[in-house]
Amino acid sequence: MLQILDSTLREGEQTPGVYFSPETKLLIAKLLDRIGIDIIEVGNPAVGPEICEAVALVSNAGLNAKIGAHSLCRIDHVQKALDCKIDFLGIFLSVANHRLERDYQITIENAIEQVVEVISYAKAQNPNLLIRYTPEDTTRTSIEQVIEVASAAVQAGADIISIADTTGYATPFKNDRSYSYFVKTLKEKLAGQQLYPKIAVHCHNDRGLALANALDAYQGGADIIDVTVMGLGERAGIVDLATLLVNLGEMVESELPWEFNYLKDLYHIVSEYSHISIPPILPIMGKNAFTHYAGVHVKAIAKDPMLYQSLDIASLTNKNNLALGMQSGRASVELALEQIGQEGLTNNRVFMNCILNEVKVLAKRGTGIDIDNELPHIVNQCFAFDNCE
Asked: What angle do CA 4, 209, 5 make, to 5 degrees?
């Protein structure tokens, strides 16, 4: 069964301006655990003592999910993570030629030696530790070098190899730039050496392709997919949790293990503590995701919501909404009046025309009309007219 790794508390905190206290990380981790997330990545303890505190706090909370830390491929950094009593450790080191030459200034052989040394050390300290090795910037690295270092990493004790699209370079359906190609090739070549690690994917959204790449990776046989709430992360972030889960729901043949009803609370809490608003047009969790506006749409969904949406939203604890504005018609106004308990007004055609006209005038300001607060004022205004024609 596919596993989900949530990195809101690690990758998500790399969003400029975002900070989660240890207590906030625990709150978020508990919700992620209730949803059924398999691995929760809390942070990199080497960054500072507060992240150490957060990782240890979540690790000791008795959650069902495996609790993980992120680390450079250095023994001193790994030891800081191990001191937090984690279940999962992610170690990363690029073996891309441009990185080896311009940044590390070492050879591929030196890099592999370092990877083997650090993974062997971590496994020796805790044989039950789940270890992921990531050849950072995997998708821009020679596949031969990825296979070489992955093979050495698995033999040293790595349980998972992560294909990281660190710069958002991967492109679905484009031969050797696609995730399905990387996943299938890596699995095939390692199996040929009698090595069978799980394959994880970490898809950045620089080109807007993170979700497409994640689904392509799933089709290619990926075992673990990394996500964050709202797709938070470096630059344009990574795959959004809710969007991935809902789309996987259309693809996974077995019964889904995730509790979707906790998503709404999770997104509001992450939004509150990250000080980043949930984009209204964010799929699944955005305010407008199930809000209908155009008159013909509203008229149809009043009869059957599935006439203008393809998702059953009951499990998401969401509801269908309607919006009033320039695109509204009589059906929209009728439903809006019912929403505020004024359905008795809908039989008065002249009065309805007055309300609709005022709605369209107010819409010219370029902002949405608050049905609960502004529509009653419009109704009162129309009542005040001597003749609503």
From this structure: 10
Least confident residue range of 93-97, 179-183, 361-365: 361-365
Catalytic residue numbers read 297
Q: What is the pLDDT of residues 196-223, one digit of tens each?
A: 999 999 999 999 999 999 999 999 999 9
Helical ranges in 275-368 per DSSP H: 295-301, 330-339, 349-363
What type of residue is 384? A
In the numeric block, which tokens belong to residue 373?
A: 């607060």
Separation in Å, CA 314 to CA 207, 281, 284, 285, 335: 32, 19, 12, 13, 20
The torsion of the CA quartet 217, 222, 223, 227, rounded to 10 degrees, works out to -20
Q: Which residues contact 314 (CB under 8 A, 6 or more apart)?
A: none
Q: What is the DSSP letter of 291?
A: E
Answer yes or no: are the C-beta atoms of 4 and 38 closer than 8 Å: yes
Whether residue 386 is predicted with pLDDT greater than 50 in this model: the reply is no
Phi, psi angle pair for 148, to nearest 5°: -65, -50
In sequence order, the 6+-apart residues with CB closer than 8 A to the CB of 341 are none
